[in-house]
């Protein structure tokens, strides 16, 4: 059994098709700095293996028997499970359809984005590294295309948003527009480290796990 490299990104594969799962395993293991640590054939097994193996990134099929990827994602990001982890886990949903309501729901539950199953090996590896860094694998415009805001009428911003400083709100809206830290820094005439501090404050104050959830927050409260 290979010895863990602390610099590796540990990946869990979840798909009910053995052939697809093994094909993705070969692709991921061939990428520098990535290693598959396990595989699951349904969502129930995926939740168990996330608890046991503590992967960094989960590639989650959206349609599976027993428990689908939406419910598995919801359980993976249940507050008690999140609180018990020493490091965050990120979920990328794999789907056959570009505009998939289930993928949108999984993102609401905490997934960091979605990929089509026919994506290229290079794009798959890049997506794994991207979400491991706390970023999304789809742009805010793509989130809008998933009709995130049609699930319910927007509600007024909560007190936590209203309590943000003017600078934090400026950074919030820049994040929602999909700007990187470097682009935000140039826009607000600040250093990248300052922007990173503001983003961290936003995640903490708005109880968001990552930048994707900030976009979802914006849609939920009519701020997008």
Automatic annotation (TrEMBL):
Keywords: DNA-binding, Phosphoprotein, Transcription, Transcription regulation
Matching CDD domains: LuxR_C_like, REC_NarL-like
Residues annotated as domain Response regulatory: 10-132
Ranges where the HTH luxR-type domain occurs: 157-222
Modified residues (4-aspartylphosphate): 61
One Pfam family cited in the UniProt record for this chain: GerE
PROSITE patterns: HTH_LUXR_2, RESPONSE_REGULATORY
Protein name as annotated: Response regulator transcription factor
